[in-house]
Write a structure and sequence with these properties.
Chain A: Residues 2-236 form the ABC transporter domain. The structure holds 2 protein chains of 2 kinds. By secondary structure, chain A is an alpha/beta fold. Chain A has 2 domains: 2-236, 3-Layer(aba) Sandwich (Rossmann fold); 243-310, CBS domain Like. Chain A has 14 helices and 13 strands. Chain A has a 6-stranded mixed sheet with strand order 6-7-8-3-9-10, with helices on both faces. A 4-stranded antiparallel sheet of chain A has the order 2-1-4-5, with helices on one face. The model of chain A has no long low-confidence stretch (mean pLDDT 89). In chain B, helix 7 (148-182) packs antiparallel against helix 8 (184-199), helix 7 (148-182) packs parallel to helix 10 and helix 12 (274-304) runs antiparallel to helix 14 (329-363). Residues 362-366 of chain B have low confidence and may be disordered. Chain B contains 14 helices and 3 strands. Chain B is flat, with a radius of gyration of 25 Å. Chain B has helices at residues 20-23, 26-43, 49-76, 88-108, 112-132, 139-146, 148-182, 184-199, 202-219, 233-257, 261-269, 274-304, 317-325, 329-363; strands spanning 5-8, 16-18, 83-86. Classes of the chains: A alpha/beta, B mainly alpha. The A-B interface holds A 48, 50, 71-76, 79, 81-94, 98-99, 102, 129-130, 132, 134, 145, 148-149, 158 and B 260, 262-273, 276, 281, 284-285, 360-362, 364-366.
């Protein structure tokens, strides 16, 4: 758990972060979204004290971060950044093992952990372990960057635009990977992004920042349905709002009894996917399955009604 | 046709030019001509670099053959003090062939190991040639024969000056460079001073050391006992040290300044201390740039150390300045040729080191 209390950073005349308070619950992802210059990166960097706050406090699992030695604090918190920041002169294995080595793990423990993480990220240890960063694709470099942040099993992770340098297709895959791994490990993650789509997709809660202030801190559905200010509404985008909303609601919420033909859709898929499928195949209703058995149908009319209620 | 050799009655008088065909018996001259023509012809084959390299070796072998045989033949008919040395024709041919060799080598792009092997091979061949005594009739070698002991003392002194001052500059320059990298204020103060030192002409610098170190030697207790005086080794060493500082410091600053910011942020963000970040990330990544500076300084120092001879610092410069005073060209060459050779060898060796550090990330074990 990360508790941020009235955290402020002032540079000369400008207030980069203005009295921001929020709490990131254990085993959740908080996505901080804002334009460049909104103070979101400064906020993140004050948590592991790459930036020292002007005032306010941060508590990590109840302990005040300001009272720990900065380098010891940082070793407890996984940190992944845009452009991965891998060490170009170290192999993949040495990059991933960097923090465990700082913590004094044994050689065999580090090796086992490196192989475990490479497997977790779908990279065959035998063929990737000894490669160097410049021999990897952009997506692989990014995965190694995240694997390195996870290496010492930190319960907290800070991520600054971790997927910013990836093309859209690889990015979607990387986001899914992160979601899965976070659920599996129960990590607490605070992630900074400029992309509202990414924030809604990844965040259990979304914090919207502008000009150093926290405008709204709420679950994604609430942000989309009820933006606190015009700025938040702008960031979501007027024309995108119904679609963003539908992407947050699973099919299971509006499943109903009745007949439907054609390819079925899983009850865990979003209404956005269901809408897309029914428009593309020109059907008024789709069969819905759960664990492979048909449990009912979802109709175009029901989807439309749900989208209308949101706005 | 330019003269190939010069014969003189003794080491000081003006000599008499000897043309190539008058230098040696006809068979040797024909072999030489054939070798030079063949070598240069092989050099024209642009597509086969090893053939061009071989051609340069054949050509050099040819001109050395006539030179050695010719020197012996000419001396047989001359007085006891007579000397033979290569003349402009020989030097021009040698220059052309060496240019061919260098061009072929750079086009072949040999790896560090291959380059080291070629260097050792060429030095070995040259050493064997010297050791065989075939060149002993040449005037430079006669100068050497009269001074063999002091030649090797001078060689040692030259190395001590060039490499010792570099080591001292590295010892001071790295920490200073790291400080300048971290603090803009220090950078603003240190780099202009070092640049200013660099602009002092070398003769003036060595001259300036004389009053400064005389004063230190006379007024600081114990200074004289460890050899600090206005002339000799200490002022020469200090002058070379001061010249070496700027390249070492500025390249350390440059090397540290070009590292990817994301890598440095990641290093700090994962919990490295400042020292760990420096030793594990920054210095290893800046190493190729820093080594490039060491290379420049080493080659520069080997050349500059010649001037140490002027203020009694020893080294090959001793022969150069003695030769200048006596207008004895051979003695000047005895100082200059080994200096040039040493500088070239040092340059090639350092290039190999720079390449090895650049390559390390690809081949190194985890």
């Amino acid at each position: 758990m990360i508790e941020i209390d009235a955290l402020t950073k002032v540079y000369g005349d400008t207030t980069a972060v203005d009295a921001v308070s929020l709490t990131v619950d254990t085993a959740t992802i908080t996505a901080v979204v804002g334009t460049s210059g909104s103070g979101k990166t400064t906020l993140l960097r004050m948590i592991n004290r790459l930036v020292e706050p002007t005032s306010g406090s941060v508590r990590i699992n109840g302990e005040p971060a300001g009272e720990m030695a900065p380098h010891l604090l940082r070793r407890r918190i996984g940190y992944a950044i845009q452009g991965h920041g891998l060490f170009p002169h170290h192999s993949v294995a040495r990059n991933i093992g960097a923090v465990p080595r700082l913590l004094g793990w044994s050689r065999s423990d580090i090796r086992a952990r490196v192989d475990e993480l490479l497997t977790l990220f779908d990279m065959e240890p035998a063929s990737f372990r000894d490669r160097f960063p410049h021999e990897l694709s952009g997506g692989q470099q990014q995965r190694v960057g995240v694997a390195r942040a996870l290496a010492s099993r930190p319960d907290l992770m800070l991520m600054d635009e971790p997927f910013g340098a990836l093309d859209p297709i690889i990015r979607a895959r990387a986001q899914d990977d992160l979601r899965q791994i976070q659920r599996k490990l129960g990590s607490t993650i605070m992630l900074v992004t400029h992309d509202m789509e990414e924030a809604i997709r990844l965040g259990d809660k979304v914090a919207v920042m502008d000009d150093g202030r926290l405008l709204q801190y709420a679950p994604p559905a609430e942000i989309v349905a009820d933006p606190a200010t015009d700025f938040v509404a702008d960031l979501i985008g007027d024309t995108e709002r119904p679609m963003r909303f539908l992407s947050l609601v699973p099919v299971s919420e509006i499943v109903e009894d009745g007949p439907a033909d054609g390819t079925a859709i899983d009850s865990g898929a979003s209404l956005r996917d269901a809408l897309s499928a029914s428009l593309w195949t020109d059907r008024e209703a789709l069969p819905v399955t759960r664990d492979g058995t048909v449990v009912g149908r979802v109709t175009l009319e029901a989807i439309r009604a749900r989208a209308a209620r949101a706005s | 046709m330019l003269p190939f050799g010069v014969i003189r009655e003794n080491r000081i008088v003006l000599g008499e030019d000897v043309a190539l065909w008058a230098m040696a018996p006809p068979w040797a001259v024909s072999v030489t001509l054939a070798a030079v023509v063949a070598g240069l012809a092989m050099g024209l084959v642009r597509s086969r670099q090893w053939l061009r390299f071989a051609g340069s070796l054949v050509g050099v072998g040819g001109i050395v053959l006539t030179l050695t045989i010719g020197a012996r033949a000419l001396l047989a008919d001359a007085g006891e003090l007579a000397r033979v040395s290569p003349a402009i024709g020989f030097w021009l041919l040698l220059l052309a062939l060496l240019l061919l060799m260098a061009d072929a080598l750079s086009a072949m792009r040999p790896g560090p190991g291959a380059r080291f092997a070629i260097l050792v091979g060429l030095l070995g061949a040259f050493g064997a040639l010297l050791g065989s005594g075939a060149l002993m009739d040449l005037s430079v070698m006669q100068e050497y024969a009269g001074r063999a002991a002091s030649f090797w003392t001078a060689a040692q002194r030259h190395v001590a000056l060039a490499i010792g001052s570099l080591a001292a500059a590295a010892l001071v320059g790295f920490p200073l460079g790291i400080l300048c990298h971290r603090r803009a204020k220090a950078r603003g103060a240190v780099l202009p001073v070092l640049s200013l030192l660099q602009t002092i002409p070398s003769l003036a610098m060595f001259g300036l050391m004389i009053p400064i170190l005389s004063w230190v030697g006379a007024s600081v207790p114990g200074a004289r006992a460890i050899g600090i005086a206005g002339i000799g080794f200490a002022p020469a060493f200090l002058a070379l040290f001061l010249y070496s500082l700027l390249p070492v410091v500025s390249n350390t600053v440059a090397g540290l300044g070009t590292l990817p910011p994301a890598t440095l942020e990641a290093a700090t963000g994962m919990g490295m201390t400042t020292r760990q970040r420096l030793m594990r990330v920054e210095l290893p990544l800046a190493l190729p740039v820093i080594l490039a500076a060491i290379r420049i300084v080493l080659v520069q120092n080997i050349g500059l150390a010649v001037i140490a001879g002027l203020i009694g610092g020893g080294g090959f410069g001793t022969f150069v300045f003695q030769g200048l005073n006596q207008t004895a060209t051979d003695l000047i060459l005895l100082g200059a040729l080994p200096t040039v050779l040493m500088a070239i060898v040092a340059g090639v060796l350092m290039d190999i080191c720079v390449d090895l550090t650049r390559r390390a990330p690809k081949g190194a074990a985890p």
